[in-house]
Amino acid sequence: MAVKQAPQEWAQWSNGALMVFRRDFLAWVKYYKSSVILNFGEPLTNLLALGFGLGTYVAKMAGVPFIDFIGPGLLAVTAMNAVTFDMAFEGYDRLNENRIYQSMITAPLTVGQIVAGEYLWEGIRSLLYGAVFIVVLTALNLVKSWWALLLPLPLFVTGIMFAAPALWVASSAKNHEQLFYYFTLFITPMYLFSGVFFPITHMPGLVRDVIVVTPLFHVVNIVRALVLGHLYPGLWGDALWMILYAVLFGLVPVRVLGRRLAE
Q: Which secondary structure element, helix H or strand E, spans residue 60, and what is its range?
């Protein structure tokens, strides 16, 4: 009897997560144009300004044309930004301003269902924004390999990877200002030092050790390899690191958000 009930319980649990996903998607549809411009504009501007501007002075980076090098890196940044800004600010508002999470709990939904639904949406969101940037890279002839067809896999995982710490911060922050600490102290340094614009091989050893434990570094490695077709065995380590990071950090917001909702 317990064996028969298990699939039913799982179906009910997943339906709750899908309800959260559907709510997020319908909310996004109402403002998707401005959202696309906000999250897509900066990486595209950097691609054009640095790739065609600075790229005229920097012939090659790591053996490939400079614009070919930074294009995949900025694709990874697009996926990161699309998820991080949305989950941090929207998560904070849903908890503290419009109290949507409190309403969901009385629906009733569990904290686990809420978090899972948020992760599912942010994974799809990362994929959507990444796909738009892939179209731009393809139009500029910067996609060099059919391996790029596998990009949806790392992009989806990237969404979960960056949604988890962003929801953790949103659940812990007492005001909007504290959210900016996360962007200033973590997101911006990752953007600058995770191999998006230059290899980290010549960085000091201690700095390299810090960089290789950050999530964006591994996303950049995989995305660049798939776009350029330069695959190597070390990518399996990057992929495993991404999965472990998503799983381990993905559990943290369940406890933190649950504690806040119980207050």
A: strand 60-61
